[in-house]
C-alpha cells in the first residue's frame, strides 16, 4: 500500500510493509521478532529514510496491529518540534537566542511543581534565572535539573557552565513563548509547526479524535497501560503523533527549504561526551563525523521512541514503540538503516535499564 502526502512542494511517499510483505526493507519484522519478544516489546512502528523515499514498517506481536494512523505518545520527541517552533520565532525576530528569558516576562517565573497537573507552585527569585537564554535551554546548558520532583526549582550548575539534560528548562522557555505569542503552547505549535508541515494527526494535548487510534503503552514486564490523556501542554513531553506525521517533520532535515529552522542547527554546538563524538545543538543531539547525524530519544511511561537522521547521505531511522523497553531496539534499527560507526549510541541515557 502506498500513502502519499504533499510536502514542501514535493510528494512524500510512504511504502507500507509489515509481516508477510514481500517488499524489500532494511528493517525486517521477522528478524526483529526475537528481540521484541526478549524485551517484552509488543509493537514498533518504523520509518526508514533513504534518498527520495520513506518506507514504513509495522511490527506487532499484540492483538491490535499498529498502522499508519496509530497514535503514540512521542515523549521527548516533543522537544525537537518545540525547538523548531522557537527557531521560527527567532527567524521572525520575536525572540533573541541570547537575550535573558526573564526580560520577556513581566513578573518572576512561576514554577509549577508538576507541570502536567494544576497544583502547587513557587515563584522563582534565584538571581541566576536572569542569565538563562533560549540558546541555553535548547542546548541543555541552563543549569536546571531534568525535573524538580514536585518541589521548588533549584540549579544544578550555573547557566551556560555545562551540559545537563533539562525538561524544566523547556517548560521555562514554554512560558516565555506563551508570553511572546499570547497563545497557549499547543495552539502556537499547531499554527507554527504542525499544520504547515501537514501533521494533521498530531497535537500537544489530547484530542477526542485520537480515541479510536491511540496505542496503549506497556510496562517493562509487558503489562498494558492506558495512554495518558494530557489536557495541559508540556512542550518537553506531551506530543501525540503518528509515524507518518513525525516523518513529515523529519523530512525538513533532508529537504530543508531556504528558511528552515533546521539550517540553524549546526551553528550552536555544546560538547556532551567528546569520547562518543556527542554534541548538542539547538534542540538536537549531534553525532559528529564526516557525515553528521542528528538524533533524539523519548521515554514516557509505557512508550519509548527514537530518531537518527543523516542529512548528507539522505538516510535515517525513526521508530515509536508502545513499551518501556523500546530503546532496546536502537542499535539494531540504526545500524540496519544508517550503516557505519555510531559511537554516540553508547550514551547512557539511551540505555536507561543499564
Give the DSSP E fraction (strand runs of 2 or more residues). 15-25%
Widest sheet, order of strands: 1-2-4-3-16-15-14-13-12-11
How many strands, what sense, and barrel or not for the largest sheet? Answer: 10 strands, mixed
Radius of gyration: 19 Å
Oligomer state equals single chain
The counted number of beta strands is 16
Low-confidence regions:
1-24
Give a verbal description of the structure:
By secondary structure, the chain is an alpha+beta fold. Helix 2 packs across helix 5. The protein has helices at 29-38, 78-91, 134-138, 167-181, 185-194, 243-254, 330-337, and strands at 2-7, 10-18, 43-50, 53-60, 72-73, 110-112, 121-123, 217-218, 224-225, 240-241, 270-273, 278-280, 285-287, 293-300, 303-310, 315-321. Helices cover 21% and strands 22% of the residues.
Which key terms come to mind for this protein?
354 residues, two-stranded antiparallel ribbon, disordered N terminus
Topology:
Elements: E1 2-7, E2 10-18, H1 29-38, E3 43-50, E4 53-60, E5 72-73, H2 78-91, E6 110-112, E7 121-123, H3 134-138, H4 167-181, H5 185-194, E8 217-218, E9 224-225, E10 240-241, H6 243-254, E11 270-273, E12 278-280, E13 285-287, E14 293-300, E15 303-310, E16 315-321, H7 330-337
Helix pairs in contact: 2-5
Structure at a glance:
This protein has 354 residues and is of the alpha+beta class. The protein has helices at 29-38, 78-91, 134-138, 167-181, 185-194, 243-254, 330-337, and strands at residues 2-7, 10-18, 43-50, 53-60, 72-73, 110-112, 121-123, 217-218, 224-225, 240-241, 270-273, 278-280, 285-287, 293-300, 303-310, 315-321. The strands form four sheets. The protein has a ten-stranded mixed beta sheet, sandwiched between helices. Strands 5-10 form a two-stranded antiparallel ribbon. It has a two-stranded antiparallel sheet with strand order 6-7.
Amino acid at each position: 500500500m502506498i500513502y502519499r502526502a504533499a510536502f514542501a512542494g514535493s510528494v512524500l511517499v510512504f511504502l507500507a510493509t509489515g509481516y508477510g510483505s514481500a517488499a524489500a526493507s532494511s528493517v525486517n519484522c521477522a528478524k526483529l521478532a526475537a528481540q521484541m519478544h526478549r524485551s517484552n516489546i509488543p509493537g514498533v512502528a518504523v520509518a526508514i529514510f533513504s534518498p527520495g523515499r520513506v518506507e514504513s514498517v509495522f511490527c506487532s506481536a499484540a492483538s491490535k496491529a499498529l498502522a499508519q494512523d496509530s497514535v503514540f505518545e512521542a515523549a521527548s520527541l516533543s522537544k525537537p518540534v518545540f525547538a523548531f517552533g522557537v527557531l521560527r520565532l527567532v527567524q521572525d525576530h520575536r525572540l533573541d537566542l541570547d537575550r535573558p528569558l526573564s526580560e520577556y516576562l513581566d513578573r518572576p517565573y512561576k514554577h509549577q511543581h508538576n507541570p502536567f497537573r494544576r497544583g502547587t507552585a513557587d515563584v522563582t527569585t534565584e538571581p541566576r534565572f536572569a542569565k538563562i537564554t533560549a540558546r541555553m535551554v535548547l542546548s541543555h546548558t541552563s543549569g536546571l535539573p531534568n525535573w524538580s520532583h514536585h518541589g521548588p526549582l533549584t540549579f544544578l550548575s550555573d547557566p551556560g557552565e555545562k551540559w545537563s539534560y533539562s525538561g524544566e528548562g523547556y517548560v521555562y522557555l514554554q512560558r516565555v513563548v506563551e508570553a511572546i505569542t499570547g497563545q497557549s503552547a499547543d495552539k502556537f505549535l499547531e499554527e507554527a509547526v504542525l499544520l504547515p508541515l501537514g501533521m494533521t494527526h498530531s497535537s500537544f494535548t489530547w484530542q477526542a479524535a485520537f480515541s479510536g487510534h491511540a496505542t496503549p503503552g506497556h510496562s517493562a514486564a509487558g503489562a498494558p497501560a492506558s495512554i495518558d490523556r494530557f489536557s495541559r501542554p508540556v512542550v518537553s513531553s506531551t506530543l501525540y503523533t503518528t509515524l507518518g506525521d513525525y516523518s513529515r517533520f523529519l523530512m525538513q532535515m533532508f529537504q530543508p527549504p531556504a528558511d528552515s529552522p533546521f539550517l540553524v542547527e549546526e551553528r550552536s554546538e555544546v560538547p556532551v561526551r567528546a569520547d562518543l563524538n556527542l554534541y548538542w545543538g539547538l534542540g538536537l543531539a549531534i553525532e559528529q563525523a564526516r557525515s553528521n547525524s542528528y538524533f533524539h530519544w523519548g521515554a514516557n511511561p509505557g512508550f519509548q521512541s527514537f530518531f537518527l537522521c543523516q542529512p548528507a547521505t539522505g538516510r535515517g531511522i525513526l521508530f515509536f514503540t508502545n513499551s518501556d523497553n523500546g530503546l532496546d531496539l536502537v542499535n539494531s534499527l540504526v545500524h540496519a538503516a544508517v550503516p557505519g560507526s555510531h559511537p554516540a549510541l553508547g550514551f547512557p541515557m539511551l540505555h536507561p535499564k543499564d
